[in-house]
Amino acid sequence: MACKKILYVRSGPYKVNLNGYNLQEIGLGKAFCRKGYDVDILYYSDENKVQELETETNNHLRILWSKGIRLLRSGVYPSILKKSFLGKYDIVMISEYSQIMAVLLSNLHHNVYVYNGPYYNLFKLSFMEYFYDKIFVKKINRQTKMIFCKTKMAEDYLVNKGFTRTLPVGVGLDTDNYHKTASIDDHTQDVIDKMKDHKNVLYVGSISKRKNVELTVKAFINYLQNNLDDKKSQLVIIGKGNKSYTNYCKSLIPKDLRERIIWIEFLKNAQLKYIYQRADVFLLPSKQEIFGMVLLEAMYFGVPVIASLNAGSDTLITDSENGFIIKDENIQKWSAKINLLLTNEDLAKSVGKKATQTIKNEFTWDNIAAKMEKEFKY
After folding, report:
1. pLDDT at res. 311
2. What's the pLDDT score for residue 20?
3. 301 with 355: CB under 8 angstroms?
4. Does residue 121 surpass a pLDDT of 80?
5. Which residues, listed in sequence order, are joined to residue 284 by a DSSP beta bridge?
6. Residue 231 has what pLDDT?
7. Taking the complete model, does pTM exceed 0.85, yes or no?
């Protein structure tokens, strides 16, 4: 009997970097391969080509790099909008209800599922959201089998729009890259050398206002200014972004404390495990976060997390048990939590251990794929 086939379309018209991201589609695809499916993942590209990925089973996992038409923030892929092409697949999955491909694919295939993350308008110009919803929500709700939601906030957002078949399933972590015995590259070793013999507060992510990196910087500076006897703690920031905003964040640092903050623009995702293993605290004060894969990563490696209230932290963290959630931007509160974890080793270890258990027990891609598979209909 032939195995069933899944097509997963990430329709956003943006190129992805396989080395730079812990890509959710690939993690989920591998999990479905372990369940006996063949999986094709469509990513936006400037050329059409097929890339076969390694799996631990005999099932196939392929990336369909595909030319797309960019319509504002949506991508359209004419080459797959054919019943003859889509008919090869038993299941079609599409990222986000708000991408026009959700409408087009559900017109052409009888078994379409949406995997939705945003709990706010991410893809549409604000004035267009009303018209898009008015025209398409009922149609998508009628023509798709289920909308899998990455968080409860995402589900609430869609239910309020009128969707009736929704299920929060979470997001998983692809640990394959971490289990492979990749050697430490020279760039990573330089960072490790800088972290050695220090207590390290870590931030990983883009440098942007949405990520609220300025709060990370301000909170750490406040901690240092209130703990003048602490000569070992430092802030390690890994990420790049808007140049003017980055310069603004750096301008917040007093001259005498500049050596206590290390800025690293990029590390390969597979190399980050060596950094998480040497971190003492992880900060993520985002104003908005669809999920936050770095939360999954930090918690998996047992780093105690301090995060703002957002969809990812609300899903992953039980406050004061496997991490900490701070619901406002009060610098003193953030500074105090940093102090608590840096000065209470037993608490930090306990919180980190529970964080690891949470990810392993509930938020691997095998867990997520199992929840989805229960809802599949053929």
Report:
1. 94
2. 64
3. no
4. no
5. 307
6. 95
7. yes
